Amino acid sequence: MKNLISLTLLLLTSFIAKANHATLIQGTKNSNPAGITAYYGTFLFRADYQQNQHVLWQYREDSGAAPLLVRDRFPVDVRADYPGVLAVVNKEIFYRSSISPAPSTYLPALFSLLPGQEPKLLNFNTFYGNNPTNMMAHQNKLYAVMDTSGLYRRLWAYDPATQVGRRVNDVYSDYVDYSGLTVMNDKIYFASSTNGYYPLAIREYDPATDQARTVPIEDTTLIPVGPFTVADNKLYLIMGVKKSPKEYKLCVYDGINPIKALVPLFSEDAPWGGHTGTDIVEFQNKIYFRGTVNNLRTWSYDPATGQASEVAALNSYDVTDCKFMFVYHGKLYFSAPTTFGHIGLYNFDGTHPPALVDSNASSPQEAFIFNDKLYFTAFAPGDEKRSLYTYYEPDSSAPSNYTTNAIAYPNPATTEANFSFILNKEEPLAFIITDASGRTAFRKPLALYPAGKNIITFGTASFFPGYYYCRVVNEQNKPVAGAKLLIR
Prior knowledge:
This protein has 488 residues and is mostly beta strands. The chain has a domain at 406-487: Immunoglobulin-like (Sandwich), CATH 2.60.40. It is built from one helix and 42 strands. Mean pLDDT is 78; it is low at 1-19 and 267-277.
């Protein structure tokens, strides 16, 4: 009996040692964190604090998470329930809070904060309080979706250098949708109605010319209903058929030609989008998305073949309302039911069966990569609100044939970097930079590089802080040389 107990303890110890675990960030338990945003070697998010709901927090690897205080005493009030209501331009923090023009009256408004200073109200429209619902930083400016008359949501631009804010020159975008703002090739994309009326259209705004246009669609029966993602300098999005709630298509826009439908219509297997939301991610050179009406399935679209198919290895892990997907260190992370009776976080390397990341963290959302670690929000056992978790796994996404004949410098980089590599022979290559989630951040088309040493110089000021992979690939998309780069 004693030997049996010893054997049981040995097997249990072995299982625990091999199991994957996420760590709950101290101080964030049951605080409902959201809106994670990188901030100069740290990151910001909103969460509850004591009796205050939705205050601004800051996380540092050396000291952990704590509320960001003004004059070392007062937490920064962030009254925000929407996603995308926290952004950083240079060192200035922009966030949604509220003003009180009359007793017991609170109106959402846009504020900014510089370290060591008092919060500042950006007074675009005092009466209606702006009501910012989405915001993002781009080319040292803040772009925010805000009310202008209390009826319509429009896209505004604010320049911190001149402290001037204005509505962008887009007279047709009267009602910008909640699905967010996306940048591709320095242009901003969003879903919006025209002249205040539905249906929605995809608008393309060019900050360089201050002009906007409606992106044409090959199939005029389609309207945008879901999230966007950028992969390989193309915009992928979910579009639905007008007046048909069960018919959807995965579509693509290359920046030049009209939006094109890629995947034939599904009825029972429709890729859901919009506010019921499914993430669209790039994984192993394919586009992954999840959806259906009754039985959730994971699909992948292969740009090389133009074909979409179910991912058979993940079918038994799919269930309605599990729509979270993210790529970290060469693996696909997704939510699915566990044997413990809740929705857990799994990872999938494309070959082996999926592995459960953690048996405690439930219903994961809002993944974020910081200093080579994965952060996400989830429910701890017995909690009614979310907590912040972190997880690390060694990187498997760097190709095995990355050689010592390539280097990225300076490393870390701030405004500019170089990628140096050596070739044994003249060869046509494309230069690609991907972030830690596997998404393409920059791509230079195929060009002929001579034998010997080659150096490619590129700007990094517009990149979000974090780890990136620089690599050159041949005409068959096979990596020839690559190096890892940290951008701050």
